[in-house]
Amino acid sequence: MNFRFSIAVLLLSSIAALALASCGDPSDAVAFGELCVPETDQCSAHAELERPGVGRNGLEYTIYTDSAMSPPSTVELRITTDDEVAFPDSEVRETNDDGDTILFERSYPLAEGETVRETLGSFELTVAERMNIELRCVQGGCAHTMTYTYFSDAIECVDDGVCSRTEVCELAYGRCAECVEDGHCDSGQTCDRETGLCFPGDARGCQSVPAPSGLALLLIALSALALRQRDKWRRRAPMVLLALATTALFVIPPSQAHAGGSATMNIGGGVRVLTGEAGQLTHPGWGITVTHQVRLHRLAMNFQLASNSFGLAEAAGTERGSISGYGITLGPRWYFPLPFSISALAEDRPFEAFVGVDYTRWSVAENRLAPVTGLDLNYHAVGPSTGVVWTWRGFELTARLNASQIFSWPGGVFSFDLLVGLAP
User: Which residues contact 407 (CB under 8 A, 6 or more apart)?
Assistant: First the structure.
């Protein structure tokens, strides 16, 4: 197995691992705003929402009191639609005085300083194209504000033929359901209408598994090296063990992740920190990186794919735990030797340092920071990179720092990466 084939195997495996780091169709934020009771000239008590295309509705909102001294009161949130929605025969939705279907209605008693946070999905809000949301005071001296973000999810089906043989398509909710009544489930199970699944049952659906994917990716790379030069495997064993030790970086929980990425063909991961206003709404996160680099003497051009994840802070106002980002990076590198080295098997292996400038096409899968960043999903980012590289017998270890400003975004991103890879 030659070196170029090993590079190809590693590149394809790396791309597959990044793809597995997140699965499922993301939700698109299509609108955000706020409602107030009592309403003012700047803040209304109702809003009309319209989805730009076909999809399932989702709404995340937070209701809080405007003053810590506000007396206890009760507010009501009502969401209606004038669209014709094909509800299942077993479900009847009430209508208001105007004949509009009431999709959701709930009252919230709020004491001093109390905050309520909710997430609604397509089971409550259906696939209606238009919705009207209204916040009303029903008791006490209300002084409350509701902030909301409106999402659109891809529909799962348009008829039963798209679903599996054991599922039916619920057009009103745009989903494939395992059951619509208890009789569709096995003995001892009941039908959970909110999810359309029999309960209790096996866990289903897509789950984010980037850490094991990174581990598998590193093992694939090491296997390719072993096959390439079996006769030298024993001599490479110490370095392979060192590389295997770095796999621990991929199984540490995201909040503790420390790992990295950059070089001829490297993979790794590391810490990510958003700065500015976006940084105030998120916790430090982590990322997986795949890089490929073409170098001529001291100059090089670096290409990078990355998958990033950040935990959302309480101030973000959402029940969802994280926000995911993706990046495609291109930038030049300038290398220069450092005046120290490591002696390995009677050979001096010097360190090199590099500096460069990176351009990144920064993207988010679900923009749950839309109230502060806007509704865009894709942004431009530019910033300097620097790092240290050590190469030994076909392996390359890299530690790298990058700080980029994300344009049209309230802040930037700082990253620290550790990478291991192949060098000719």
Answer: 379, 380, 381, 382
pLDDT for the residue 75: 92
How is residue 10 annotated by DSSP? H
CA–CA separation, 245 and 410 (whole Å): 37
Radius of gyration of the chain (CA): 26
Helix (H, G, I), strand (E, B) or coil at 392: strand
Q: What is the pLDDT of residue 129?
A: 93
| Angstrom distance (rounded) from CA 6 to CA 221 | 8
- From first CA to last CA, the distance across the chain in angstroms is 14
| Nearest C-alpha neighbor of 344 from the set 392, 377, 386, 307 | 392
Nearest Cα residue to 208 out of 321, 122, 319: 321
- 420 CB neighbour count, 10 Å cutoff: 26
Q: What's the rounded Cα separation, in Å, for the pair 67 and 417?
A: 44
Question: Mean pLDDT for each consecutive 10-residue tract of the chain (424 residues)?
Answer: 47 49 65 91 92 90 78 90 84 88 93 85 92 92 90 88 87 89 86 88 48 43 46 44 38 33 73 93 92 87 91 78 88 88 60 94 86 89 94 84 94 94 74
CB 286 within 8 A of CB 274: no
pLDDT for residue 391: 80
Where is 424: in which H helix or E strand?
A: none
Task: Find where tokens 């300097």 sit.
Answer: 384
Phi, psi of 283 (to 5 degrees): -95, 160
* C-alpha torsion 244→246→247→253, nearest 10: 160
The interaxial angle of helices 233-246 and 210-228, nearest 10 deg, is 170
What residues contact residue 62 under an 8 Å CB cut-off, 6+ apart?
Answer: 115, 116, 117, 118, 146, 147, 148, 317, 318
Token readout for 409 is 């975004």
38-55 as b/e, with b when 16 or more CB fall inside 10 Å?
A: eeeeeeebebebebeeeb
How many angstroms separate the CA atoms of 372 and 316, rounded?
A: 9
What does each C-alpha distance from 236 to 239, 268, 347, 394 come to in angstroms? Answer: 6, 20, 14, 9
Q: Are 279 and 411 in contact (CB under 8 A)?
A: yes
**Structure confidence at residue 259 (pLDDT):** 30
* 296-299 contacts at long range (C-beta below 8 A, 24 or more positions apart): 298/334, 298/335, 298/336, 299/332, 299/333, 299/334, 299/335
